[in-house]
Design goal:
The complex is a heterodimer of chains A (496) and B (218).
Chain A (H helix, E strand, L loop, with lengths): L3 H31 L5 H19 L1 H10 L5 H20 L6 H15 L6 H35 L4 H32 L11 E3 L3 E3 L1 H31 L5 H17 L3 H9 L12 H15 L7 H31 L11 E2 L2 H9 L14 E2 L2 H11 L4 H11 L1 E5 L2 H5 L8 H8 L5 E4 H11 L10 H20 L6
Antiparallel strand pairs in A: 1-2, 3-4, 5-6
Helix pairs in contact in A: 1-2, 1-4, 1-7, 1-8, 1-9, 2-7, 2-8, 3-6, 3-7, 4-5, 4-12, 5-12, 6-9, 6-11, 7-8, 7-9, 9-11, 14-15
Chain B lengths: L2 H5 L1 H32 L3 H31 L4 H14 L1 H16 L5 H30 L4 H28 L5 H35 L2
Helix pairs in contact in B: 2-3, 2-5, 2-6, 3-4, 3-5, 4-8, 5-8, 6-7, 6-8, 7-8
The chains are: A mainly alpha (496), B mainly alpha (218).
Chain lengths: 496, 218
């Protein structure tokens, strides 16, 4: 990483990370620090450590969903998307509205999509938007249940004031650590997700087992930015949240943090997803949700259990209004910023990509359930943006949102060369023996489209085969796709 | 060893000190009753001795109370409940002071207490002792089992109301008896009011205990 431009561009994400640390840490430790149950330094230290751990260990799941919404493909674009989101969060917080990076970054990504004429997958967008409704509702429900249980537990158990206080303090610290981990796992995608497609790092192998991927390095950097935000600016916000929620007893504060953390964890944990899939239960989508929404939902849930009289509906209405305005502001800032960055500062904010339909691409379309009967007329045509190619195909045959995504994926030209030098650089532990063997057999091959490599590998070994439908298959397929994405990055032909 | 005892060492130390403080309070209630009964039976020597013992315990209690307050203030224990506890300890401190003042007045004035009042006064002292004992139990529960605070607080109220009834009956006896001159009547009234004040204070503190228990268990 020698190019100073990369460092400058990454500062956009680091600023967003700092904003997230400064503001969202208050959702985790605000009540505990504000009510002086936990010292700020203790809270900041725990928060910093667990945010980083959550980001590195469990952060990748949600970033995949963000990637589907829009893959910002140039560092300049990623910088502006992150900066726009960071500025929006910073300003909205200045106005006293608890907004979240999740809402802001979604606005930014759509802003970049519009600016670069990239395709926006409506099904992924709807999935994310629906969580903005589900997240506070689920959090309210969990908080209401947890509060009722915790209250009856405290009433039944033989305990005195000092021990209750001590245990509550310990519980708040543990819940805060869990909350910080969940925040890191769920929200790191907001901070660094836009940089994933353009990750400027290479994978690092430590010893024979431990491997730090380029994405994990990116997330570590984001986690550190969040931790700096926690240490430098979150105290004020924590004190504000603590005093604003003055009616919350320590027990209610614990419940709020737990409910918030559970919701964030549910929407971030790949292991939980796998566990549910193994039991043939429906899985929860891995989506970056708003920690502010989760905490507000939890407080409302507790308020309703207590009779709902103390709830300030006017204030809740203004918070919800803030949630709607945030992505719109972020979207506008991003578009204006991208315009200036591209035309005034002469920076690349989108990488020129070519999309071309060929007989092979049409075959892929057919497999994806797209009617290709009348698409022959488009064969050979070159398109210069993902939205353009989808519009062209859509003008001929009807397309669902998911199929639109497939059109983009299969028609994108991405020249790959499988050469010996790069083959030797592959991390032996990342791929299975069979997978590596299959790959080695392709040495010397060249591909015009990424999927061609995927198909060739699947023909060589069953371990590269995507299985399609079914929950368990979905998880295995995701792992294969992750490995393929690594290979596509590795073997991409250098631009001359 | 219980790992929690290592984790909550400071909290457990405060609890232990509060327990000792409550035992001192109960001892004082016992000595107060014993001293008064000795006076009623004419044994001034025993009264003085009991009064002296009570004074010594009060000193220890004061010192212990001060230690607890300092621990709460300086070792940043329980920031959330610290203010509540300091307020409560200040309130509780008034009960031992009322014992001291009540006996101090007797020692100073050495009033002549007619024999016909002795039986009811002894009864009043028993209920006073029981009220303070119930207060000690209520406070003990505040630090060991919040659920049982209410029943002890109700016991304090019951004893206080008994003391009130006896006090009123005694005041009637004092003011309706034409053998006592006005000065004596007012002196006896003052003494009875001092005894009654102990249970009134105990009831006040018990109410504070109940408020704290309710506040912290919901």
């Amino acid at each position: 990483m020698t190019d100073p431009a990369i460092i400058i561009f990454l500062t956009g994400g680091l600023f967003l990370g700092w904003s997230l640390g400064a503001n969202d840490a208050a959702n985790v430790f605000g009540t505990a620090v504000g009510s002086r149950m936990v010292r700020f330094t203790t809270a900041a230290l725990i928060c910093g450590i667990f945010v980083i751990l959550g980001a590195i260990i469990s952060g990748t799941g949600t970033s995949l969903t963000l990637g589907k919404l829009g893959a910002v493909n140039a560092l300049g674009g990623s910088f502006m998307a992150a900066l726009a989101a960071g500025l929006t969060v910073y300003w909205m917080t200045k106005f006293g509205l608890p907004v979240s990076t999740s809402q802001a970054i979604i606005g930014s990504i759509i802003g970049w999509n519009l600016f670069s004429d990239s395709y926006t997958d409506l099904s992924s967008l709807l999935k994310i938007l629906s969580t903005w409704v589900v997240c506070p509702l689920l959090s309210a429900l969990i908080a209401a249940l947890l509060f009722t249980l915790a209250k009856s537990f405290v009433r039944k158990v033989s305990i005195g004031l000092i021990r209750l206080d001590g245990y509550t303090r310990l519980a708040l610290i543990l819940a805060g650590a869990f909350g910080a981990y969940s925040l890191g796992a769920n929200n790191i995608a907001n901070v660094m997700g836009v940089f994933v497609p353009v990750a400027p790092f290479t994978d690092i192998q430590v010893g024979s087992i431990f491997r730090i991927s380029s994405i994990q390095q990116l997330f570590l950097l984001g986690g550190l930015a969040i931790a700096v935000g926690v240490f430098t600016y979150s105290k004020r916000v924590m004190m504000t949240v603590g005093s604003e929620l003055i009616t919350l007893t320590p027990l209610a504060a614990w419940v709020a943090v737990m409910a918030h953390s559970i919701v964030l964890f549910l929407f971030a944990s790949e292991r939980l997803e796998q566990f549910l899939a193994n039991l043939s239960l429906p899985t929860i989508p891995l989506v970056p949700v708003s920690s502010s929404q989760a905490v507000v939902g939890a407080v409302i849930g507790i308020g309703i259990v207590q009779g709902g009289r103390e709830l300030q509906w006017q204030r809740i209405y203004s918070i919800v209004r803030g949630w709607v305005i945030t992505p719109i502001i972020s979207l506008l800032i991003c578009i204006v910023g991208l315009y200036f960055l591209q035309n005034v500062f002469q920076q690349t904010v989108k990488r020129e990509s070519q999309y071309q339909l060929s007989s092979g691409v049409l075959e892929q379309f057919r497999k994806a359930g797209i009617n290709t009967d009348e698409l022959d007329t488009l064969t050979g045509s070159v398109f210069f943006s993902s939205a353009e190619v989808v519009r062209a195909v859509k003008a001929v045959v009807p397309l669902s949102s998911q199929q639109g995504l497939k059109v983009v994926e299969y028609s994108l030209q991405n020249s790959l060369v499988i050469n010996a030098e790069k083959l030797s650089a592959i991390d032996k532990h990342f791929l299975s023996t069979q997978q590596l063997e299959a790959l080695k057999q392709l040495e010397g091959e060249k591909y015009k489209y990424s999927w061609q490599l995927g198909n060739a590998l699947a023909q060589k070994s069953k371990e590269w085969e995507l299985r399609g439908d079914g929950l368990k298959n979905k998880l295995k397929d995701r792992e294969i796709k992750r490995k393929l994405a690594y290979l596509y990055r590795l073997f991409k032909e250098e631009e001359k | 060893m219980n790992p929690l005892s290592l984790l909550f060492k400071k909290q457990y130390a405060v609890e232990e000190k509060v327990q000792r403080l409550l035992r001192f309070l109960e001892d004082m209630a016992h000595l107060y009753q014993a001293a008064y009964e000795a006076y009623l039976e004419g044994s001034i020597e025993e009264f003085s001795q009991r009064n002296q013992e009570l004074g010594e315990i009060e000193k220890k209690l004061d010192e212990l109370g001060h230690q607890i307050q300092m621990t709460l203030l300086h070792e940043s224990l329980m920031p959330n409940s610290r203010d509540d506890l300091l307020w409560f300890l200040t309130k509780l401190d008034k009960v031992p002071s009322s014992f001291k003042h009540s006996l101090g007045d007797i020692l100073l004035e050495k009033p002549e207490i007619p024999e016909e009042l002795h039986s009811s006064m002894k009864n009043m002292l028993i209920h006073t002792h029981l009220a303070v004992q119930a207060l000690a139990h209520a406070t003990d529960s505040l630090f060991s089992d919040l659920r049982s605070v209410r029943q002890h607080v109700e016991e304090v109220s019951r004893q206080e109301s008994e003391v009130d009834k006896i006090e009123y009956k005694l005041l009637q006896m004092v003011f309706e008896n034409k053998k006592y001159d006005l000065a004596m009547q007012y002196q006896l009234k003052g003494i009875l009011k001092q005894i009654g004040r102990v249970t009134n204070l105990a009831e006040d503190v018990a109410d504070a205990v109940l408020i704290l228990a309710t506040k912290h268990s919901t």
